[in-house]
Predict the structure.
Amino acid sequence: MALGIGTEPTAGSGAMPGGSLPGTARSRPRAVRLPRSPKILAGLAMLAFFLLWSIIGPFVAPYSPNNIGLNSPVPLPPSAAHWLGTTNIQQDVFSQLLVGGGAMLLVAVVAGVIATALSVIVGVTAGYLGGLADDLLSMLANIFLVMPALPLLVILFGFLGKSGSNDVFLIGFIISITGWAWGARVLRAQTLSLRNRDYVDSARIIGERAWRIIFAEILPNLTPIVASSFLFTVLYAVGTYSAMAFLGMVTLPPNWSWGSMLFQAATNNAELSGYWWWYIPPGLLIALLGTSLVLLNFGIDEFINPRLRAAGLSRRTGSRRQARALRSQQFALTPVLIEAAGAAATGPAPTGGSVRAGGPA
Amino acid sequence: MSGDRLLEIRGLCVDYGHGPDAVHAVTDADVVLHRGEVLGLAGESGSGKSTLVMAATRLLRPPGVITGGAVRLYPAVGTEVDLLEADYDVLRVLRWSQVSLVLQSAMNALNPVMTIRVQLTDALAAHQPHLSRQDRHARAVELLEMVGINSDRLSSHPHELSGGMRQRVMIAMALALQPQVVIMDEPTTALDVVTQREILEELKDLRDQLGFAILFITHDLSLLIEIADAIAVMYAGRLVERAPASALFRAPRHPYTLGLLSSFPPLHGPRTPMTGIPGSPPDLRALPSGCVFHPRCRFAFDKCAVQAPPLAVVGASNDRLAACWLQLGDGPAPAELALREPDLTEPTASANGTQTSSGPTGRPAPTERPAPTGVPERAADHEEPVQQGSTA
Amino acid sequence: MRVIARRLFFYAVTAAIAVTIDFFIPRLIPGNPVQAILSKIQGQLPSKATIHALDLQFGVNTTASLWSQYTHYWNNVLHGNLGVSTMSYPDSVGSLIRAALPYTLGLVGVATLISFVLGTAIGAIVAWKRGSWLDNLLPVVTFFQAAPYFFLAFVAVNLFAIKLGWFPSERASNVADFPAFTWTYISDVLYHAILPALTIVIASAAGWIVGMRNVMVTTMDEDYVLIAAAKGLSKRRVIWYAARNAILPSVSGFSLAIGFIVSGSLLTEIVFSYPGLGNLLLQAVSNNDYQLMQGLFLIITFAVLAANLIADFVYVFLDPRTRQEA
Ligand SMILES: Nc1ncnc2c1ncn2[C@@H]1O[C@H](COP(=O)(O)OP(=O)(O)OP(=O)(O)O)[C@@H](O)[C@H]1O
Ligand code: SF4
Ligand SMILES: [Mg+2]
């Protein structure tokens, strides 16, 4: 669904439905301690960079993203005046990049918020109620999952016309309609497994109301999955918005975006003529923005399912040789690390401290 | 049941993780399994039984690390392989042909997407490439019939079998290459009592027919009296007592064994109140000083908190070992721990448990072997290698 | 086969909903598409019948009840009548799609298959060698997972077609019209397909790699994989025992992924001027060819549903537990 962005949530990425979450054993809401994994840190840093870029970008852009009145029939390569060169109609690429992040991020966040809200509502309701309601809601989610989003969005925006496609909130809303189903499915599975936990049972037995159980017992424990599904939808929306812009469905001025820059580059055959400064920067920025979101999502996945972490052993290992031996161990070949003073590393000698006591005689 | 050793675990130490956070799951464990012997390994949940056997076969998963000791397999008299030094290819040859494995849940141990036929014959194909397809099929039929399953089940998938049948298939699989050792990690725990009993009976028959040795792990001591020749008891990753099965039952020598025995209603004999063991097992990251059992031991005295008792021979015969100061001459043992042993002159006495080596007394010494290369200390083989329970 | 029957029913419902969406969108969104269409094809003197058909298609200037319009619409769809294209009037939408569909099916089908096989294999190996240098592959994979297909297509064209000149940069063959199934023609088509296919493979394999790796890591903790190793089977066979199970979630996740991949591939086609559905979609958008858009939506949806059905068959074939009757 992340049209053009290859972020398909193949099974296994994302939360394992039904899998247990650390921290779900207790009913009291807890702040989620994000592990200080390099993935999460890198993802957050990159995301902060893009936020900053989009917010201050328009103010620091050296030129207007539109025509700047230079006179040249072909795009000009990067120069001191135009760091990333110009387009065929002499627009400053760098300025377009600076201006083009905001609308896209806004669309993505709007879509992310609405879609996440929808998926929480549908997923938790289906999982908590079960029965017919579950069947129907699950079917609804599955229908939205298999229906290819790009052509659907094309007809929606086609009939809406160009006026509709300039409204950032409308675009965000429509994208969210095609993007909520995956989160709903994962949340439903997790709710289903939470519902059968002891503390939820006991809350039900003592007569807590359904909405109280959902808000006090279930939702707090879904936090990592909700976060992951939000990030996923944001990523999906970035890709979808770029794809739509790339199809020329988003009118250019005033809604500059990296996707529409690629559309312009494509219609003017920039890749055939070697105007790399025109299409590499916007493409790279979309890819890196996506990477930051994927990294964050990986981090959350590893938090949910610690087995996914790259190295199996604790980082505080002894010597480097040991660390290497432990990290790159083979399957079904338990490493032997015998540290006997002076003895061979993997010798069969008994451990240094052992003392042979008297024999049976 | 000859007395010569088959699998010898010496001073094995196993950690989960590395560095200061490491869990010391097994410490200085000595276990010797003899040819044709059924050795029970008992202990509370978390005492390190599975860790011990999985590490010994090098099958323990990360973050498990072997940090000390030696494991030797004697495939035939006079041959010896050090499993801790072996690489993957050496192990591959020994695995299943010498040592096979039955796990608690056959549902998990059988591959859900492959037929019983494939899973019964894959090891044959890997180890005996000269066998034809027909030979393998014939062997698979034979194996299934051995455990009382009709051969038309060969094309079934695991989910089409009942729990008992699955465990029987696992046992048939484990016997496919006629290994000398079958390690069984709680093979019947997941089954109902009736099936449990049936399978145990079948297992005994098969053992009598085929003569393989079994390392039988369970936390149900009452099961072991039915099947085991000898029993070793583990606590907090250490072996605390080992003895011939009946001796251990009638006359335990370690307070922990006594506690374990009284946690179960006795199958035979008069009913005694179930007392069990107070408290809970220690944190393996930060073990108590001295005897690891002392915080829970009702007989503990001053020395226990200071010094760790070694696992040493107690009493007259050399097939009883216990790691408790009470048995090592520090004052008379309380009456419960000094019961008279059953008569050991019966032939079963030779099936002595974890008796770790043939001493000057007792069983005939195994064939004299040259000391394994590179391991000069092995010259001390004829000593009982009792080791101080090193409390890290 | 109950699983398949249930899925078939589900796909039928989804297809019906797609047709219904197609029917209602022009009626719900304000504006008169017929006027727009007529102004487009001005001067080509559309017949009265054409105008009437258009009116009925979009529900304007008609006294017919909504229900009869709806049944009429269904009747058209079931007879393969998807209306006329305004941008290439008087060609029918059906004929345009028929000409483009084989290219897309061939390109996307083969590329998806290759990417699935390659991606799952790599994912399995990365999981197996966890802790080795292969782990460093994951951040790279992350980048490709996040990069838009069409951006990768730009780079591929520039690098391999323009700079290195290894492959043609656009179109599906050097001949304009389909001549005959000669070897020269087929090899020419294959030659033209390599670069776009490569782009799709690289862009979509990342998802399979990560998905397979994560499931495989979990599967390797299963007892049956340990038992396979304990049996002394060869490493390759042990990996196979794990992978054979770990692939199941990837196959069932296929239905999620295929939508992404198809969408991405359509955009890739555009960069390569590949004469498939993607290019048709771009033309439909830039010419406001509503009926073509609608027809494309239906056909692409049906194709995705068909791909899902195939994946379901494969799943049932791979997982004996689903074959159990009752
Ligand atoms: N992956 C691991 N990481 C850290 N500690 C572990 C791990 N696996 C096991 N342990 C710890 O090692 C100790 C020994 O576990 P082991 O499974 O060997 O016990 P056991 O005697 O087989 O118990 P049971 O009867 O329940 O099977 C336990 O205290 C357990 O908590
Ligand atoms: S050594 Fe002391 S604490 Fe340990 S078991 Fe014996 S009596 Fe109890
Ligand atoms: Mg165990």
User: Anything to note?
Assistant: Residues 1-32, 312-317, 341-361 of chain A have pLDDT under 50 and may be disordered. The interface with chain B takes residues 312-314, 316-318, 322, 326, 329-330, 332-340, 346-351, 353-361 of chain A (CB under 8 Å).
